[in-house]
Amino acid sequence: MVHLGxxxxxxxxxxxxxRVFWIDRKLLKKYADASGDQNPIHQDEAFAKSVGLPDVIxxxxxxxxxxxxxxxxxxxxxxxxxxxxxxxxxPVIVPLGKKVDLTVSATVTEVDGSNVRLSVTxxxxxxxxxxxxKALVVKS
Length: 140
Hints:
The protein has three helices and seven strands, in the order βββαααββββ. It has 140 residues and is α+β, with helices and mostly antiparallel strands.
């Protein structure tokens, strides 16, 4: 077990408080500009639909980064995150004029000294968007 502020100990089975990130087209544009990923499936509804998508979708790396932020915030900073992996399962669909949720939660699956393994869940509109998401963090 690891201490978590005061007398509280981190134990296998502990649930990390859920966090919701809100994604809209404005955020997609900012991410596209910052990352250089100008793929039109992330900004052009007509193009996205022409290639078989239901609407514009969030960048997979944006989704992964937000989940990584959830993990690093809980861990106490990015330097505490030793491993982080995921699989892309479904896209986050971002209709025009709407903010869609990326809801993230986690469960402690292993505690070994100060090492804490997490199983992370990420959904949008109730649909699992990332799968097999795991993290190893060091908690002091």
